Amino acid sequence: MSIKKGLSLKTQLYLLIACLTIFTFSASLYNNITSMQTYLEDQLSSHAQDAAHSLGLSISPYMDEEELVIAKTMTNALFDSGYYQSIAFYDLNDKIIFSRTNPHGTQHIPNWFIKLFLLSPPVMTSEVSNGWVIAGKIKVQSHSGSAYNTLWDHSKNILWITCMQLCIALIAGFFILKAVLYPLKGIERQANAVATKQFEINSEIPYTTELRAVVNALNKMVENIRQTFHEQTQLAESLSKQVYLDSQTDLPNRRALLKRFDSYIVEANETGSALYMNLISMTSLKQINDSEGYSAGDNYITEAVNLFKKQITPFNQITMFRVSGSEFIILSLMSSYEAEQLNSSLNESISLASNTQYPQGFAKHVATKVDLSESFSCAIQRCDTEIATQQYYLNTQNNQITASDSQGHSRIKWLEILKQFIAYSSSNNIQRNLENMHELDSIFELMLQPIINNQKDLMYVESFLRFKLEDEVFSTPEVFAMAERLHLSSELEQAVVSFIFHKLLKVKQAKIAINIGNSAIHDESFTNWLFQIYQQHKAQLPQLIFEINESAAMASVESTKQFISRAKQMGIEITLERFGANLSSFSYIKNMDIDYIKLDGGYIRDLEEADSRFFVQTVTQICHGIGIKIIAPHVENITISTHCLQMNIDGLQGNGLYPVSHYNTIVSSKEGEIDTILLLNRFNTSTQIKE
């Protein structure tokens, strides 16, 4: 376990108990040995004293002998037993009369043990009398050899027993502590889950009083968050359905259409995309209602909705609206090639569905390419006119959806174009050299737009890519749409990400957001490549944020969670953009570890309406309650920015604040300047909003 990340409580307790146990048993071992040492020293003292008294009494009758032969013999007999270090007889003037000495030394006893537990046998004295007169004194000192042997054997036995007790105590302590602290794992999992927006109840209630209190408190907190989240999401979803959905078909209504139309116009202007409108009129609805009843009319509408949904499912960035009882509108950002396919598919399905049951035909359908400068009323008026005159062909010559448009390339031409865009990624040079990709500057352009917080500081910078080839500039959504249709989306994503990484090698001290394609986050081979190349160049890149579309996230929630989890492991933050565009349930976000939510631009442009403000405010409160920051895009004027700040929205983005800028105008391309600090003052401030 890394010390930098900290030691777990369990590890710290294990270490503490192990240290205390080892210290306690070591002290006990030492005390036991020293007690034995003291005991042996007392025994040596007593032994020497007894020997002195006994020998003194034994040699007293022979003090008158010449040279004390018998006394010496008795002394030698006692000394030769080997239990004495020295025996000496002194006269009254402390002069040695005779003595015996045994050399020091112990066999098989380590010197360190002798030095650590030193035995010092005392010299014991006893007076020797000759009748009533003191003849001298005898001094006896016991030998420490046998005592050391006894002490050494005793120490080894005690050490073995102590080690056994220590091991048993540590093992028992480990399992006891493991059982006591086991609930901490559940508490830790729950705390980590809350940090990643996973609000789960811990069903394992510990026996320990203090831990039980912690678990109950966490469960209560999670339950309150879940209840608050549920209530607020229900309120937001209910309001969304009332305001933006048709009650019969659950399709977006006319108000949602107006909001989305404005959003698509802005997006089409920013990306160079084409906006198409399909108007479908259910011409037999009145006759069916009159002849068969409203129930039959409802079934007629339901059948039509199911039929048209099947036709639009294969396309991206397309939405179907019910604008009146008998009329549907389909708005889409797509290429002219896709628009022709959609138009043909709708006409064919209407033709197949028409029969004698429908006196006025199953439906009438017209399609038009919207002029980005015209209003919704003008576009719908042209479609209404064509419906009224039963023109079942594409729009007038000025707005025809044909291959004569500026970007109406054939399928073969698109394949050639895309192969040029992905040529570098297909050459397998990316992982070898990310820095040497200057040739891509001729076909890719990197654009940047800052997102500022409510303190007017830089939150992060979003990156965009524009495609160009020779003198032609391509619509970004159109390029990706055609790449997906031609099964080249993964290669195109690799080329785009590699080019952005190449450009970002010069940027430091700023968060940069990269948009990940709708299908890319569910493509395992692409995600493996993405995280591998990021890992290789992580030290050279700034902190990254991946932006993923809400519709892409909802297409497969499980694979989206896996993508987010891998990104989080590498320190990459996640933004969920165009939130609310699908008018679906918001509950899925509580189980996704996302950092930012970028609202759909339609809600922001509609903030002057009270119900839109209430909806945005509710979503903001929901996200703040689970630790997610809210970003408002498409902030185009001072009124919108004021509403956003009043609702405590965390980040603002839009041309009304800082317009999209070319990378080369923000980051210097001077040779050798590789550590550019990306600051907010490098961007040009919009004249629409003054500081």
Automatic annotation (TrEMBL):
Gene3D superfamilies for the chain: 3.30.110.200, 3.30.70.270, EAL domain, LapD/MoxY periplasmic domain
Cross-referenced CDD domains: EAL (cd01948)
PROSITE patterns with a match to the protein in the record: EAL (PS50883), GGDEF (PS50887), HAMP (PS50885)
Record domain GGDEF: where: 273-417
Domain of life: Bacteria
SMART domains: EAL, GGDEF, HAMP
Transmembrane annotation, as ranges: 12-30, 158-181
Domain HAMP span(s) in chain numbering: 178-230
Stored InterPro entries: Cyclic-di-GMP_PDE-like, EAL_dom, EAL_sf, GGDEF_dom, HAMP_dom, LapD_MoxY_N, LapD_MoxY_peri_C, Nucleotide_cyclase
Hydrolase found in the keyword field: no
SUPFAM superfamilies: EAL domain-like, Nucleotide cyclase
Keyword annotations of the record: Membrane, Transmembrane, Transmembrane helix
Ranges of residues in domain EAL: 423-674
Protein name: EAL domain-containing protein
Organism: Shewanella electrodiphila
